[in-house]
Amino acid sequence: MSSPSSSTPSPSNTTARKSALLASYGYPSQPGMARAVAAAAASSDSTGPNSPSGLSGRKGSISTTRSSHRYSQLYSMAAEQDVEVEDDLARAQKRLRELKTKISSQSKKNFVLERDVRYLDSRIALLIQNRMAIAEAKVAEHLEEADASDGLFPDDRKLQSYGNLFFLLQTEPRHIATLCRLVSLTEIDTLLQTVMFTLYGNQYESREEHLLLTMFQSVLSAQFETATEFGSLLRANTPVSRMMTTYTRRGPGQSYLKTVLSERINNLIEHKELNLEVDPLKVYGQMINQIEENTGSLPPHLPRGVPPEVAAANADVQAIIAPRLSMVMEIANSFLDTILESLDQVPYGIRWICKQIRSLTKRKYPDATDFSICSLIGGFFFLRFINPAIVTPQAYMLVDGLPSKHPRRTLTLIAKLLQNLANKPSYAKEAYMMTLNPFVENNKARINKFLNDLCEVGDFYESLEMDQYMALSKKEINLHITLNELFNTHQLLAQHRDVLAPQEKHHLRICLNELGPAPVQVPRKENKTIILPLFSRWETPIQDLHSTFLQETNITQADIMYMETKSILVQLIRSIPGVADKRPLGLMKIAETAATTKDAILVRKGIKVKEMLIELETLNVVDDHFTFMTEEVTEELRHLGNLREKVNEEAASLESVYKTIGDHNNYLRSQLDSYKAYLQNVRMQTGGANPGQGPGVGVVTVGGKEAKKGKQQVLGPFKFTHHQLEKDGVIAESNVPENRRSNIFFNITSPIPGTFIIALHYKGRDKAILEMDLKLDDLLEKQQDQVQLLDLEYVHFNVNKVLALLTKTFIKR
Description:
This is Glyceraldehyde-3-phosphate dehydrogenase 1. By secondary structure, the chain is an alpha+beta fold. It contains 31 helices and twelve strands.
């Protein structure tokens, strides 16, 4: 049996490796390193009587002195990668894994669909503002579904380089953390899609979740470092706040909201006619409208358009509001009770972010009161997580359809109350909320305790190190990613290369230099999903966990054998029906039973574990009756039994979440279909068709209204001289020589509504010198973004003027 010293690296090498490993997670190895991380590293390097090496040769006291439990757990995790046990637990775990994968995938699809709905919504708003038609083809091109089948990236060398780059991004979260702070608000959604749903897309896989959380810690640390005012922290609409909101929309957050809030909200919205408005001005307006409806006129003492203070002083308004105040506070209390009772159900990641907010606040503002700190925690938990779901439950899949007017207003009031409770109440804009102040005063201590309790969760640095061991021991780590996600991330990294990786020898800079310029985005129809194998050229994969343990820990060969024996015995007991029910467990008998079955795999394992038990006994690692190993195997089986129940409960809960996310996906698709139908209607109406026009005439129905449609009509060409357009300000700049401008003219045609072809001609030539295809929604977007000039190579058009020209020329034709 080898001694501990024969297989243990020197302390300096071990410490160096720890520092490198911790640094890869985004933590500095300098004295400023987080205490929890330092403690985790220190505990891993411990030696002495309670260290893993103290296990060997201590017959009769193994169970009580072993501190190698985490290595035993790691060994078991590794062993399970190569074994297929078919018992109830294994089947339940497989079902749970499949569910989690489906939820992660569906969450990403919904995120993309929500973004598409916002895109179309903004386009329709622009078109309504300009009273012009749109080319449906452009919208369809933007929204067309990509082929879901997996493709292969065409260039193997580039594929490998991307695999290296994205392994680096995933395992060293500080790069993404910095990038998220550098990008603009217009870029953040696309980046968040890649980060939240692709790079760390396995939402229930601990390694990816923990790496994502380390990224959040880095982002929050920088946010606190650069903050100038306490009150503005985490409240402004920034890329960081958008990150935090998007994180809460992942599977675990959605599951929590549905479990905790769905029943309360659905009970409330059943009472469609229950009016609990407490704003005196609104109550006064509703009151006089009702009087006018009943009597046909208004008495002189009840004029319209009174100021808030007059409405609040009206005795009838006060009488209406008084019972409503009590009811609103009662309903708000029921919501609050439900939330406070759900502490143990809050997803770990959300609680961990709350913990970081508290820790960073105490460091940045050592004199901050507990009340102030809780207001920041509440700013995340309520403002970014709970309240949006209460105000818009349909968007969070908590209700079917849109709540009616009165319940919707009540939900808004409840969210305001909870926010006032979590933050310092502000009544500057809504003085009427002061009447609900008793709710805030009565519950302030309760909410502060809850927000502090949210922060009481353990850290994960030690388990993350184990997860990284596991990742390095896997033969394949793959990322399912679309080409445009790949190219967009590449482009953003290259754009901010000098900030992210200022030194030439920086690994990230080396990867980016090898890849060269980022490819342009591909059309949506060509945006295939590829399987990207991840690897690191700077970190050697773990080929053999046995030798890794011996080289990188204080564990001996005998310890390895002990853990392997225990692991195989647990597998055998789970694989042989009825064995687990017999007490006490006879480990040698179990080995013999397996060795005499008709299953070749069980026979081999039974013979192997029998020989290992004998060898362990010879080495004095176990006693004659295997007492302590029997205790540990029994305890492991008890844990697995409890685990099966938890797995089944979690699977039942996630089945509901998956169905809800699927329903929301259908809802989003129906929204897109409605928008497309609306745009098609606009296109047909502005196409100049008349009823009875002949072939092609038909009817489009949108929202219950019929719109006539007819043959598509080409409008134009309409001729404009260079001089005319220059005089009208349409041409802002011209590169055409002065002496030739009189021979230049432009023909503008609209082949389909919303699409325009501008052709530049020279007198005496049949063919156009230049043709440009313009889409109306692109022009409108440029106008909204305050882009002044449109480059047509020989001339620059003024965007506003060209829009006015197109409106005047085509809108009534």
